[in-house]
Amino acid sequence: MSNATQQMIFVNLPVRDLEVSKAFFAALGYTFNPTFTDEKAACMIISDSIFVMLLVETFFAQFTTQPISDARRQTEVITCLSAESRKAVDVLVDTALKAGAREPQPARDYGFMYQRGFQDLDGHLWEIAHMEGEPG
């Protein structure tokens, strides 16, 4: 695989109520690409190369023959994002909690890495981590 072109990642997540999910993530400071956002899906911008597609469950179902997991009861994936500092980890997770998320377990400090997480309104797990040696 060539390194000449930077790869992008699009994480696709099923959501029950797209407008509620968009409001939740907007409260965390994320924006959406209007070109790829409509009544069935919203393209949340994490960075220049990382995007999360929030898809209404019925629309999400068109892309798989498997049943859709209920992330409030089962874990299929944990999406981990880096943060520029320990403080940035705390700010983002605390903002998520104020917007209605829940914190499934306490912060973890491994010395070289500080990590906290939240479960969003649809039950999806997000980890926010700062590793020593990263800028910030």
TrEMBL record:
It comes from the Bacteria. Residues 8-46 form the Glyoxalase/Bleomycin resistance-like N-terminal domain. SUPFAM superfamilies: Glyoxalase/Bleomycin resistance protein/Dihydroxybiphenyl dioxygenase. InterPro entries: Glyas_Bleomycin-R_OHBP_Dase, Glyoxy/Ble-like_N. This is Glyoxalase/Bleomycin resistance-like N-terminal domain-containing protein. It comes from Stenotrophomonas rhizophila.
